[in-house]
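A reminder from the course coordinator: this example appears on the midterm review sheet, so study it carefully.

Given structure:
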């Protein structure tokens, strides 16, 4: 099965909006064993949309369109498909009743949004007004979805069931999510194993402090060798893999805290609360995260966490000693087992010769063990604040996970408190 995604909208081709819908669809299809062959973005121009659809139909079995189903003058998808495939646009009683039930008869766009191509399967939109629809056109299946990502995702989950029924899976996918490794460090494994196993491809997607590895084998070539590859990988990187299900490191940390029946707090400076935000985005985080601090200024560090002013004056806020004091201060103020602190220079200004932009100090204070571990590092992505923050949080959560999971000392420097 060959699949093409066409994302429609001037806002996409002009760079006003990031196209998140196409990656969502591709990822969902990959989970089911389908590989997308082409992704196209086209503006709200009828001739251009027609041309892209015509070309895609010649070489693809599944065509997925996003955008252009709304009630405004630049929403052209229904009209284009009607003209291309000689399918009349007709009023749908099913859609009209659904919209009236949810929005009332006074909905100004009720009539327009109830117009659907004749002979299509309708997918009602529970979170918006534009329904999705699909139809078979000669050898190809065509699916149309609204543009807003939340609406698209909701309807596509319905469509995906029909895709699975119609098309046999092309392959099988397995995922591994790791920390503390770069793409270059994993490359020797790929070079060794890919040539040995027919139909195998291994993809690596590095981020800041974490990396995702995807193993794909074509269904026709499926063999026990695929399992051998996974076993070899899992054995080689046993102490770096934090999940086989989700790329969210914070989710793995929360699950491990629950398993160990431990509680955590964070005292953040340069990361600006990013660590707490990510952790508390995980459902059930309140069981193990009691709270925390964004002690951005020196006065906040002193008043909220009890950091000695002399320490801040002599060594500066970005120092291992201050990071340790922040973590210990946090541990003293909440009934938790562990406290993490992050302090650094996110940039683009504020750096010096001794402490360049990207310098970050972190610490982990432990109540039961009576220890505090700390370290200083130069963050990847230095010069871009958001990347320094992301790398710093990933770095410290990775070290904390490794300590909880395998008992690895989190940082090079540790002392009793």
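Designed residues:
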């Amino acid at each position: 099965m060959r699949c093409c995604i066409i994302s429609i909208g001037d806002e996409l081709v002009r760079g006003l909006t990031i196209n998140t819908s196409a990656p969502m669809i591709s990822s969902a299809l990959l989970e089911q064993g389908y590989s997308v062959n082409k992704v196209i973005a086209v503006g709200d121009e009828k001739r251009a949309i027609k041309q892209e659809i015509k070309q895609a139909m010649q070489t693809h079995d599944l065509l997925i369109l996003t955008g252009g189903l709304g009630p405004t003058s630049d929403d052209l998808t229904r009209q284009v498909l009607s003209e291309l495939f000689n399918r009349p646009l007709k009023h749908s009683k099913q859609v009209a009743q659904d919209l009236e039930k949810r929005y009332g008869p006074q909905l100004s766009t009720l009539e327009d949004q109830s117009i659907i191509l004749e002979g299509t399967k309708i997918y009602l939109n529970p979170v918006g007004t534009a329904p999705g629809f699909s139809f078979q056109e000669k050898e190809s299946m065509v699916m149309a979805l609204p543009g807003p990502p939340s609406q698209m995702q909701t309807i596509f989950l319905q469509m995906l069931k029909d895709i699975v029924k119609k098309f046999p899976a092309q392959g099988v996918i397995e995922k591994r999510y790791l920390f503390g490794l770069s793409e270059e460090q994993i490359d020797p494994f790929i070079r060794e194993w890919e040539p040995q196993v027919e139909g195998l491809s291994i993809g690596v997607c590095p981020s800041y402090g974490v990396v995702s590895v995807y193993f794909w084998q074509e269904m026709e070539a499926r063999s026990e060798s695929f399992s051998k590859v996974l076993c070899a990988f899992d054995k080689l990187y046993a102490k770096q893999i934090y999940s086989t299900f989700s790329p969210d490191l914070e989710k793995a940390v929360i699950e491990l805290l629950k398993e160990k029946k431990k509680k955590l707090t964070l005292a953040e400076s340069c990361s600006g609360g990013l660590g707490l935000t990510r952790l508390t985005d995980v459902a059930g985080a309140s069981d193990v995260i009691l709270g925390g601090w964004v002690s951005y200024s020196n006065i906040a560090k002193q008043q909220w966490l009890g950091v000695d002013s002399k320490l801040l004056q002599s060594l500066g806020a970005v120092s291992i000693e201050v990071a340790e004091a922040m973590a210990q201060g946090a541990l003293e103020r909440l009934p938790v087992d562990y406290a993490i602190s992050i302090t650094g220079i996110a940039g683009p200004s504020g750096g010096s010769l001794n402490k360049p932009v990207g310098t970050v100090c972190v610490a982990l204070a432990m109540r039961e063990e009576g220890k505090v571990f700390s370290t200083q590092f130069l963050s990847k992505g230095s010069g871009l604040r958001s990347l320094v923050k992301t790398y710093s949080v990933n770095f410290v959560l990775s070290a904390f996970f490794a300590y909880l999971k395998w008992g690895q000392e989190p940082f090079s420097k540790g002392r009793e408190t």
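The longest strand covers residues 171-179. The chain has a mean pLDDT of 94.
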